[in-house]
Sequence to fold (657 residues):
Amino acid sequence: MNAPLIWIVFPLVMAFILFLIRRRQRLTAAVGTFICLFLSLASLAVEVDVPIKTGFFEFTIRNELLVLGRSFSIAASEQVWLAVLYGAGAFWFVWLLFIQQRPIYVPLGLAIITGMVAAITVKPFIYTALILEMVTISYIPFMASEDARVTKGVLRFLIYQTLGMPLLLFAGWLLAGGEISPISGASLTQSAVMLGLGFALWFGVFPFYSWIPMISEEVSPLVSGFVFSIHPLAVLIFLMDFLNTYPWLREFPALYIAFRWLGLIMIITGGLWSVFEQKAIKMIGYGALISSGLALLSLGIRGEGGMQLLTYSMLPRMLSLILLSCSLVVMLKNRLGLQIQDLRGYLWKTPTSSAVFLLSLFSLAGVPCLPYFPFLTGLLIELTLRSSGLIIPLLIGIILFLINGYRLLNIFFKGKEFSEHEGESLAVRILLVFLLTVSVFIGIFPSVLQPLQTQLLNQYPFLL
Amino acid sequence: MSGFLALILILFTVAAGMLLIASEDWRLNMTALLIIYTVLFFLVMQIWPTGLAAIKLISGWVAAIVLFVPRFSQREQPLQFFPQPVLLFRILSAVLVIVVVQAIYPAVSLWLPVPHPYLQVGLMLIGLGLLQLGISQRLSSVLQGLLSILAGFETVYSTLEGSALLAAILAGITLAMGLVGSFYLDIQREDQE
Fold:
């Protein structure tokens, strides 16, 4: 038995089978959810390279699979990433049991998650860039519109991701040279610039983030939410691997300053644009921008404090984006171009999804009792101790996003034009309320994420 | 590699790149991509085993042909070029890119130890691909630009690292881009008809 066979080959085969039966959406959604849940729980429960006894049988799950002279290896410390990625997949696919979407979502979604897992487990890790590029191409049919058109945002996404890959590979090659002979200052600068540029293109960092609002406007919120939550996670893991592997890169002083300032710019511009936005559907894009900015800012705080914040923020980010996109899908149905002014009184029309939508926005703005609150307070404390000059710009961005939330709250409350509830099935309501309860629980008791955080942090000893 | 062969390959790259930029006819564009991947094969063959280098040739050719398969059924039409002012602008821009590449490649070779013909061809393809991306938003042009950039990158990177998995994944990327592009270009063409 082999770990990559279980966590990479098996789901990939299942994705192909689900593709063949994709017309039966509920069945594919149920099977997809089950597979993701099973693989997520298995990655937490099963230890690789340790003999497992079951009755008369004793077997060991080996951690490595050799492919064309390179290996896919799932170390015990990496299993937590598998749990996070497949867990996120389960959270996404379960919605397709209740919400009608394109039949291709589950098989392609499963293949994309498997691709991400393959990308983070390939050794040497520089091959991650190549596998992520393969995954990027899979996003095209995933994000193509109902009438099978590739929209401008999707095309821009493809361009940026494809341009990023060579830069990251060249940066990796230059940095790997430092393992053989000492790396010169000029080479370090060149590789840091290439790494920074490649990473900015991939992660959607200022000024290469125009595809985020574009995609959020052009495709279903369920799809954009999936992309905005899964894709940056894999890119962040790749970046942390880079930083953890190459000490000379970690010592490059401008890198952390750039992370902090670029993160801040993303937060401020995300907040500013959201205030003037007229389309509800684009809120998910601004939410993604703000959360990515916050992740980048916490990565910029060098040391254990920053890493703890970053690892903590991963689950709340995922939850907030899931809630935001699913509530939008339920609320807007097929009227994706709906203006914010048309949402007058929606709190009476679709009460659960409207409330969840607003609370998810407030969550991203760090309102107390919601999951981003402990993160934001921690971030403010860290910034006070290390670089207090960044607090004001951070607060400006957050307050702008909060104002946007208040503006929407005001519109949603105004007028009671709808006398009957519309289109919120009981199952959808239960699911929304359940996820919201989980969010609030994390917001009130953030220490529940401590074990997950510890496992994630153990993977990056040199970043602490 | 002999200087004469290098010169021939560089000239073919320039011709193919110019063709890609100047023409909007699918037959010429396909020919340009086929030439680009043939040049890539001859370059990579000098440093990699022929079998591995052939992967690049085959995957590139298949991608180039698959990308334009939906057009095969079109009625035969005379070759299409852009209107004269647009054509002039495109050719001059391409010439500018080639001149810039000729100017900067010695500097690039100082920090990227890549033999000159590889760097020249690679940077030219990357530059012309970027130009293609910059001046057109049509799906077919974008895909041609991306394929050109990837071919340029493969030319340069093959001198730095060579492994079967690298060749396999890059071939997979090229093929996937051709397949996905072909599918959506076909749908767009049906809509236009």
